[in-house]
Every structure is written in C-alpha cells, then in structure tokens.
C-alpha cells in the first residue's frame, strides 16, 4: 500500500479523516515523519501543528492544530488522540487572538503574584493560542 489513513480524534469526535502519503508529527521527543508501511509506533504529542500531505494532489497539504495527545502508527493508519484539534480552515483567528491576549494577561498577573501553578496554566493557554494562530496562517 502506498498511502495511509490519518485520523484525528478529540473528545468531541473525529476532527480529521483522510488518506495521505506523508504526515509530520511533533512529538515530545522531536519531529516524526510518517510514511506508508512504517513500523508500529506510539508517541506523545506536544502542542504544535500536524502536517498531512494528501493523496489527491502532490501539493495538497492539510494543517491541523494539535493541543497535545498521543499518536499511534499501525498498519498504514495514523491515529491521533488529541486533547483538542482544529483544521486550519476552521480556526477562528479573532477568537485565538483574544485567547492569546487573555493568556498573556494571566501570565503577567501570575508572575507578579509569583503563582507558579497559575503561570504554568497561562503558559499552556498561550502556547495553544499561538499554535492556533500559526496554523491558521497556512490557509
């Protein structure tokens, strides 16, 4: 088989389901390029973009904002279980910009109060917002 199926599943259901020649994942250990017939693999994902090169056109690339989770590669299927995910075309950039500003304010406030837990939460929220903004730029 010269292609694989890529599925992204969130608590809200299937976010993405297409055939691909290539997928680029951002794992906690670095980037992982996945091609058809790859050995079975499981990896933890970080907050970053997912790149999927579709089979319908060599230049057709889908970009998906992934907010953590795990990926399993098995039998020409890449299954991603993500905390949340959005395709580039579905991202509300205005909402992402508001989330970015809110997270920056929360981070500044937490740092001024020296609240380490609140600062970590704000950093994660900021990273997610920046990831969504970055992925939306691929439209």
UniProtKB/TrEMBL annotation:
Which UniProt keywords are present, listed alphabetically? ATP synthesis, Cell membrane, CF(1), Hydrogen ion transport, Ion transport, Membrane, Transport
Matching Pfam families: ATP-synt_DE, ATP-synt_DE_N
Q: Which GO terms describe its cellular component?
A: plasma membrane; proton-transporting ATP synthase complex
Main location (coarse class): membrane
Secretion signal: which residues? none
Q: Which family does it belong to?
A: Belongs to the ATPase epsilon chain family.
Per its record, how is this protein called by name? ATP synthase epsilon chain
What organism, scientifically named, is this protein from? Pseudolactococcus piscium
In the UniProt record, the gene name given for this protein reads atpC
């Amino acid at each position: 088989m010269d292609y694989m199926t890529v599925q992204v599943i969130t608590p809200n259901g299937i976010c993405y389901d297409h055939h691909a020649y290539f997928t680029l994942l951002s794992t906690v250990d670095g980037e992982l390029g996945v091609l058809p017939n790859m050995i079975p693999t499981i990896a933890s994902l970080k907050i970053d973009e997912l790149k999927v090169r579709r089979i319908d056109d060599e230049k057709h690339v889908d970009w998906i904002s992934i907010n953590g989770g795990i990926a399993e590669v098995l039998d020409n299927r890449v299954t991603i279980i993500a905390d949340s995910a959005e395709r580039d075309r579905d991202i509300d950039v205005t909402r992402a910009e508001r989330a970015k500003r809110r997270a920056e304010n929360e981070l500044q406030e937490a740092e001024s109060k020296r609240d380490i837990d609140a600062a970590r939460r704000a950093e994660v929220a900021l990273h997610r917002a920046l990831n969504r903004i970055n992925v939306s730029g691929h439209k």
